[in-house]
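Async update (no meeting this week)

Hi team, since we skipped the sync, here's where things stand on the single-chain job. The sequence we agreed to prioritize is pasted below, unchanged from the tracker. I ran it this morning and attached the output directly underneath so nobody has to dig for it. Comments welcome in thread, and please keep replies under the output.
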Amino acid sequence: MPRRDDIESILLIGSGPIVIGQACEFDYSGTQGAKALKEEGYRVILVNSNPATIMTDPEFADRTYVEPLTPEIVEAIIERERPDAVLPTLGGQTALNLALALADRGVLEKYGVELIGAKVDAIRKAEERELFKAAMDKIGLGSARADVARTVEEAHEIAERIGFPIILRPSLTMGGSGGGVAYNKAEFDKAIRWAFQCSPVHECLVEESLLGWKEYELEVIRDNADNFSVICTIENFDPMGVHTGDSITVAPAMTLTDREYQRLRDAGRAIITEIGVETGGSNIQFSVNPEDGRLIVIEMNPRVSRSSALASKATGYPIAKIAAKLAVGYRLDELQNDITGTSAAFEPTIDYVVTKMPRFAFEKFAGADPRLTTQMKSVGEAMSIGRTFKESLQKAARSLETGHDGLDSMLDKVDYRDLAGQVRRLVETGEAINTAKPMLGDLPDPSEDELRESILDLIRTPLGERIWYVADGLRVGLTVEQLHQATAIDPWFLEQMRQLIAFEGALKAGAGSPLDEATLREAKELGFSDRQIAKLRGETPDQVRSARAEQGVQPIYSRVDTCAAEFPALTPYMYSTWGLDSEARTSGDKKKIMILGGGPNRIGQGIEFDYCCVHASFALKEEGYETIMVNCNPETVSTDYDTSDRLYFEPLTYEDVMHIVDTEKPDGVIVQFGGQTPLKLAVSLSRAGVPILGTTADAIDRAEDRERFDELLTKLNLERPRGGIAKGSKDAFAVAEEIGFPVVVRPSYVLGGRAMEIVHSQQELARYMTVALEAVADAETQTILVDEFLKDAIEVDVDCVSDGKEVVIGGLLQHIEEAGIHSGDSSMTLPAHALPPDVLATLRASTRALALELGVVGLMNVQFAVRGSAVFVIEVNPRASRTIPFISKAIGVPLAKIAAKVMAGQTLRELGFTREVVTDHIAVKESVFPFTKFPGVDTILSPEMRSTGEVMGIADNFPDAFYKAMLSAYSELPDEGKVFISVKEGDKPAAAELGRRLKDLGFDVVATGGTREFLARAGVEAEHVNKVGEGRPHIVDRLQSDEIALVFNTTEGAKAIRDSRSMRRQTVLSDVPYFTTIAGARAAVRAIEALKHGSLEVASLQSYFITAS
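Output:
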């Protein structure tokens, strides 16, 4: 049937902030859905709380609401916009849960809104564990022995019946949140309580262990005429027990026979039919016992899933786009496959191998448990395409940007005896791994037997880098069978790895003699990079590159065509491989500009940079340029096949990028928009004669290099905190002694404040230097920067656009917290609301001076600290910053688009952007943290960035905007109850004022001894509570008893931070809003006061800029 004409307007629900388990793959899905629906002529209303996404750009919907994703707020939007339908299946678990809540509250019925994409009954049957198990029983498909528990007592009874080990799967969660494995009663008791807390319906499936079984996923799609297709099969490299988001995955499935595939396909069709998903895509996960072939259905997601983005990029089949059109009435046979121009009613066949590898950030969370379980912990992923699994695997490994050039050896970097011992201790006692503090002390070089024994012991525990440990096992003589027994990884994968390691031996054996064409070609077909080959042969990468040029060993580019070349591909979506005929068609009259993306998401470099890359592509296409995107992140909009004129799905290394440059010969390359990843390539690309657009590589180096940066500030007569450079501990002590403690210490040239810290004493500095020097061990420079800590200063971020002659301020973002918290983690407000006019004028003038002196052409971000009337420059980033999407949404100006056009040669005056936009409304940015994923990790904020995403609150006043931001960040401020206050000495006067205001609002105050005495002297009555070390009942007991509604806790110094750690941790476990700075506490009280006297209003972004448009 054709599109439905009884529907005119559709509300599309987004997925909210980037969190572990629900990342920017849902921005990709939501953007595809919004484009597809607008293409069909529907009025699209979109709600999402995440300003960093492409989908929340006003141009993608008729009305865009950047508002909290709560039932109350979405109901207000429905009341205002009166959509005919709601589409929740493109916004992950958040949107699905929200749709169920709206249905349960009667909101959809009240306003006559239809749920499309999946009906309520279908969602419940798939998501609620008991209903799903009954559905599987009905159609004769096996499921693990399990029962649903709703109380701790029920859970223990089920566990006794099933037997340990036990798998826990909480209902209606994302990324396996709250899930895990319990091997005994003690572990189970702790784990089940956490599982219940994570489930919005306080329900958990207690399931038999399938540890060691094989895991497969099917991405499937079905229409209302019962047409059904398997879009992609995905196989997990790791066995059951590791969340699929944390496992290496491979498409298509490598070890399935045709008979086994048909069995899974038949099961998939039966499942999607029984569940009742008639108009869209679904993800179904299976487990197979390798011993007897027993098939178990693990779960089904009745929506576009995390893996849907991977499947779409792997096959070229746009699942979210097709799903959106099926939801409005189309059949598969009525839709077209964009890549081939043929019908969408087909099952893609691919003649290449796709590998996804996850990226982790355990180094950001001291004390985190790095073991991989059924709860997802990775923060990003990279995808690669190759002719074979071996080629694809090596490309994926170097795409991660974690210091690996492929499946390279770690034997010279890791003492396997010590690491195995630390992991064994972790398993037995729970004590965290600390590689900076060896467990076994200095040891002599290990013997081969010791290495084999240690590696075999280590790889029994799934860890983020286990594949490299397994490869080293092969290098020291462990057999495929031994490795299989230790890991349960399929022997086929292990054999592929063995062949790679064997070829390493051939390369080493040939060292000293010239590389012949056959060896070179085989090495490249196996995925070896020039750097790998050079290291194995004792040469330089340039020597290997020259040898390849002489021998004519160059890559070709093949197209992703969905049909194994049965039909010609109309879309130039390319990957490199090694063969004879390249499908890259590079002729044309248009000038070409290449954009280098940001690679895999990680803390410090996330979706914000992909947003900038996408805008660059859109802007340059508008100006008539041919755009070429290079990236390796399957989650993003930048790697959608229709974002740019050509897409190269490739690692962002010098070798891989230069191959594309040699093929395309672009007129310019943009490195400023993808974060630190492409920026690190700027100098080497420039030296190779590649035309870098915008700010020069030398200007970037002037801002990054400490000595040159100091010279720049001296020339401009700008102040910066006193500081110095340290090459080791001795230098650091000398600089700190001269400046005076506390000092801020950080490695140079790192991302997201990695290993950045405030230290208060020589003892703390000594401990820090050990950690910091390890963090920069693989960096180009081991320089440590030691700077004065500006106590009680306010930080301000300023973003601007410059054409080299004129500079326009994009926005001044004032940090709500005091200095000392990474800008990526700090709450911010735009415009800056509490700074005097003379300070604002200094900030603007300093930014302009810096941009003009550096010759910035494009975007620039400057971080300032303001203390009194003094303004200090902290750092300058002559590139896109993570705040660009937020500012662009807040002021209604697409800064990245303007910057891209400037970089291509236009002036700001020609573009009509010559004045800063200062808004009447207020926008607040709040960060979102993954602390719930890492029990035991301290939640206190510091100069090292740890947030995974952000939200935006926008309103006509600051208190409402702040409250919305908190609500969007899953931290709802209370309107009654007890507030716990415990603050450092300097914050007590402010705490007394806040206590008085809270008492006036009807709250009770609870405080520790010193704070309570100060409050009493100020006339604020407070109940006394013990600190954790002062006896029981203490504050953690009160939190565990749900007696505390809000926490204000500020500390200073390592001891005070340690002493209050358990209290901060309990606020996370008890879901209590907490503030660790007095400025944040002030903002919270203002928001609570405002809410007491009024209600929140919703407004679309478009409504804020009606006069401007």
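Quick observations from my side:
The two ends are 38 Å apart (CA to CA).
The chain has a mean pLDDT of 92.
Reply here if anything looks off.
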